[in-house]
Design goal:
Elements lengths: L1 H12 L18 E5 L2 E4 L4 E4 L14 H13 L8 H13 L5 E5 L2 H16 L3 E5 L12 E3 L7 E3 L6 H4 L2 E4 L4 H11 L3 E6 L15 H11 L3 E5 L12 H5 L5 E5 L9 E5 L1 H4 L18 H15 L4 H20 L5 E5 L2 E5 L8 H4 L4 H13 L2 E2 L8 E2 L6 H17 L1
Helix pairs in contact: 2-10, 3-10, 6-7, 11-14
This protein binds pyridoxal-5'-phosphate.
Pyridoxal-5'-phosphate (PLP) binds next to α4.
Length: 420
């Protein structure tokens, strides 16, 4: 198997053979070399229906002709100039027109950079120290994002990675998503010193967890009450459910938004943006430093513009209905076979949890049977269906998925779930 040979080479070069940890799974992660539409092909020539979509960005499917042709046009003109380019302005306008809370923005090269800068900006703007994040919320891999809650007696977070100083974790408070009381408690104790609350509006990195019970509206109100900022990390949700942010769908308007994934059309990207008075604090006009050699680079911007211009004219009902039908099909199989599982769905994202409880919090999600999920993942691979390789990721639908994909997927799941 070519996959195995290449993986052995990769193991000699990269820790566990990968350049990002979620790509690793035992024994040998599948290695893809091509994609077209809803399908990806591995180096051994097998073709799979793809529900990972590069962990979200490929909403139009792989190798969209128009996007590829726009990237090639840009390549002919050069890759990087280190100056302002028209491409940035064009993509910036598209985003500003679509998400009303984004008055000004900065492009970055990843979602990690976007949230890192958004957090620094919130601290610089408010002059306050603490950031409040949600347990199980993921905002990339910088120090301030790698914090989880400590034991019950501890108020501050603790590092979720070695190498993150305690001093950093002592500036990050960790609340529970969908649990207003946990947030209120932290605000009562630290309210005047909380620079910002940062959250994914829909959790997408612990499986899918929807916001319940006006939770996001509550976050908006409590941040206003204490003069803190609200940061919505829409790296996954931005332009995923409609040609706007999730914030526009539910009409809860944050001060700062972070985007990534879809807006780069598959090229490396991030963005943070928001109210003009806040964004004007960024250097060189303001005193909050932020920079990047590749930020807003012409190549990424051209992929983003092409993707967004196509997406603008798409009817999102298509992917949302696909997800409805798929999830209904899976729910029937689960019921008929009395499988201990249930599915969370948000528009065109879903996750099947091997859990007897409905998953509406981090604490319930983490009790899911990740081993069983892995077994399902492996069996589905044999059925030529590719899911993100973890119970705590999210399946995505693209505009390239079609009816045959849908039927083949439901039939494959039916065979696999009966085997488990
Ligand atoms: C909500 C959210 N924020 C931030 C990030 C980090 O983005 P990146 O991987 O581009 O650094 C991710 C990545 O999956 C994400 O899902």
């Amino acid at each position: 198997m070519k996959s195995e040979e290449l993986f052995n080479e990769a193991l000699k070069l990269f820790p566990m053979g990968v350049n990002s940890p979620v790509r690793y799974y035992s024994p040998v992660p599948v290695m893809f070399s091509q994609g077209k539409g809803s399908k990806i092909m591995d180096v051994d020539g097998n073709e799979y229906i793809d529900y990972s979509l590069g962990f979200g960005p490929m909403i139009l499917g792989h190798a969209n002709d128009n996007v590829i042709s726009k990237i090639k046009d840009q390549l002919d003109n050069g890759i990087l100039f280190g100056s302002i380019t028209e491409n940035e302005i064009e993509l910036g306008k598209i985003i500003k027109n679509a998400i009303k809370s984004i008055n000004k923005m900065r492009f970055t090269n990843s979602g990690t950079e976007a949230t890192m800068h958004a957090i620094r900006l919130a601290r610089g703007y408010t002059g306050k120290k603490y950031i409040l994040k949600m347990e199980g919320g993921y905002h990339g891999s910088h120090d301030y994002a790698l914090i989880k809650s400590g034991s019950g007696t501890m108020t501050f977070g603790v590092p979720s990675s070695a190498g993150v100083p305690d001093e950093v974790s002592k500036t990050v408070l960790v609340g529970q998503y969908n649990d207003k009381e946990s947030i209120e408690k932290l605000f009562k104790e630290f309210g005047n010193d909380i620079a910002a609350v940062i959250t994914e509006p829909v959790l997408g990195n612990i499986g899918v967890i929807n916001p319940g019970n006006d939770f996001l509206k509550f976050l908006r109100e409590i941040t206003i009450k204490y003069s803190s900022l609200l940061i919505f990390d829409e790296v996954i949700t931005g332009f995923r459910f409609a040609f706007k942010g999730y914030q526009d769908i539910i009409n809860v308007i944050p001060d700062i938004t972070t985007l990534g994934k879809i807006i780069g059309g598959g090229a490396p990207v991030g963005m943070f943006g928001g109210r003009e008075d806040i964004m004007d604090k960024i250097s060189p006009g303001g005193n909050v430093y932020e920079a990047g050699t590749f930020s807003g680079n012409p190549l990424t911007m051209s992929a983003g513009i092409a993707t967004m211009n196509i997406l603008k004219n798409k009817n999102y009902d298509y992917i949302n209905n696909y997800a409805d039908k798929l999830v209904n099909g899976l729910n029937e199989i689960i019921e008929e076979n009395k499988i201990n599982a249930n599915i969370n769905k948000c528009y065109s994202m879903f996750q099947l949890f091997f859990n007897d409880k409905k998953v509406n919090s981090y604490n319930i999600a983490r009790l899911s049977d990740a081993g069983k999920f892995k077994k399902m993942f492996e069996l589905l691979l044999k059925e030529n269906i590719y899911l993100p390789p973890s119970q705590f990721e999210t399946e995505f639908i693209s505009f390239a998925h079609n009816n045959d994909d849908l039927n083949n997927t439901v039939n494959a799941f039916s065979r696999v779930l009966k085997c488990l």
